[in-house]
Amino acid sequence: MADQNVSKRSRLAALLLCWFLGGLGAHRFYVGKTGSAVGMFVLLVIGVISSFFLIGFIFLVPLGIWALIDFVMIITGSFTDAEGKKVLNWSQPTSA
User: Fold this and answer.
1) How many CB atoms lie within 10 A of CB 53?
2) Does the predicted TM-score (pTM) go above 0.85?
Protein backbone atom coordinates (compact mmCIF):
# COMPACT_ATOMS: atom_id res chain seq x y z
CA MET A 1 0.00 0.00 0.00
CA ALA A 2 2.79 2.42 0.80
CA ASP A 3 4.57 3.99 -2.13
CA GLN A 4 8.07 2.57 -2.60
CA ASN A 5 9.45 6.01 -3.54
CA VAL A 6 8.33 7.74 -0.33
CA SER A 7 10.68 7.96 2.63
CA LYS A 8 9.70 6.83 6.12
CA ARG A 9 11.12 10.10 7.48
CA SER A 10 8.78 12.84 8.63
CA ARG A 11 8.60 15.90 6.40
CA LEU A 12 7.54 18.04 9.36
CA ALA A 13 10.56 16.95 11.38
CA ALA A 14 12.89 17.68 8.46
CA LEU A 15 11.25 21.08 7.97
CA LEU A 16 11.60 22.05 11.63
CA LEU A 17 15.18 20.82 11.81
CA CYS A 18 16.02 22.82 8.70
CA TRP A 19 14.34 25.96 10.05
CA PHE A 20 15.95 25.89 13.50
CA LEU A 21 19.23 24.01 12.89
CA GLY A 22 19.70 24.32 9.13
CA GLY A 23 23.20 25.74 9.38
CA LEU A 24 24.27 22.73 11.39
CA GLY A 25 22.93 20.36 8.74
CA ALA A 26 20.61 18.68 11.25
CA HIS A 27 17.91 18.03 8.66
CA ARG A 28 20.44 16.27 6.43
CA PHE A 29 21.66 14.12 9.32
CA TYR A 30 18.00 13.24 9.98
CA VAL A 31 17.39 11.94 6.45
CA GLY A 32 20.72 10.08 6.34
CA LYS A 33 22.73 12.42 4.12
CA THR A 34 25.69 12.47 6.48
CA GLY A 35 28.32 13.53 3.96
CA SER A 36 26.60 16.77 3.00
CA ALA A 37 25.52 17.32 6.62
CA VAL A 38 29.15 17.21 7.72
CA GLY A 39 29.94 19.62 4.87
CA MET A 40 27.34 22.08 6.16
CA PHE A 41 28.67 21.76 9.70
CA VAL A 42 32.26 22.35 8.55
CA LEU A 43 31.18 25.45 6.59
CA LEU A 44 29.49 26.76 9.73
CA VAL A 45 32.51 26.15 11.95
CA ILE A 46 34.96 27.67 9.45
CA GLY A 47 32.61 30.62 8.89
CA VAL A 48 32.23 31.34 12.59
CA ILE A 49 35.97 31.03 13.26
CA SER A 50 36.93 33.17 10.28
CA SER A 51 34.32 35.79 11.14
CA PHE A 52 36.81 37.06 13.71
CA PHE A 53 39.02 37.96 10.74
CA LEU A 54 36.07 39.56 8.88
CA ILE A 55 36.00 36.97 6.10
CA GLY A 56 33.47 34.59 7.62
CA PHE A 57 30.76 35.77 5.24
CA ILE A 58 32.57 33.91 2.44
CA PHE A 59 31.52 30.68 4.16
CA LEU A 60 28.31 31.73 5.92
CA VAL A 61 26.50 33.23 2.92
CA PRO A 62 26.69 30.06 0.79
CA LEU A 63 25.69 28.04 3.85
CA GLY A 64 22.61 30.21 4.35
CA ILE A 65 21.68 29.89 0.68
CA TRP A 66 22.14 26.11 0.86
CA ALA A 67 19.90 25.84 3.94
CA LEU A 68 17.29 28.09 2.29
CA ILE A 69 17.24 25.94 -0.84
CA ASP A 70 16.85 22.81 1.30
CA PHE A 71 13.98 24.50 3.19
CA VAL A 72 12.15 25.31 -0.05
CA MET A 73 12.77 21.78 -1.35
CA ILE A 74 11.28 20.29 1.83
CA ILE A 75 8.20 22.54 1.58
CA THR A 76 7.65 21.67 -2.09
CA GLY A 77 8.15 17.95 -1.49
CA SER A 78 11.21 17.52 -3.69
CA PHE A 79 13.68 16.82 -0.85
CA THR A 80 14.95 13.23 -0.77
CA ASP A 81 16.57 11.03 1.85
CA ALA A 82 19.86 9.14 1.49
CA GLU A 83 18.12 6.35 -0.46
CA GLY A 84 16.68 8.80 -3.00
CA LYS A 85 13.14 8.50 -1.66
CA LYS A 86 11.09 11.69 -1.38
CA VAL A 87 10.35 12.99 2.11
CA LEU A 88 6.60 13.58 1.70
CA ASN A 89 4.86 12.37 4.89
CA TRP A 90 3.97 15.26 7.23
CA SER A 91 3.91 12.87 10.17
CA GLN A 92 5.69 9.64 10.93
CA PRO A 93 3.77 6.80 9.27
CA THR A 94 2.31 4.29 11.66
CA SER A 95 3.18 0.65 11.28
CA ALA A 96 0.21 -1.61 10.56
Assistant:
1) 7
2) yes
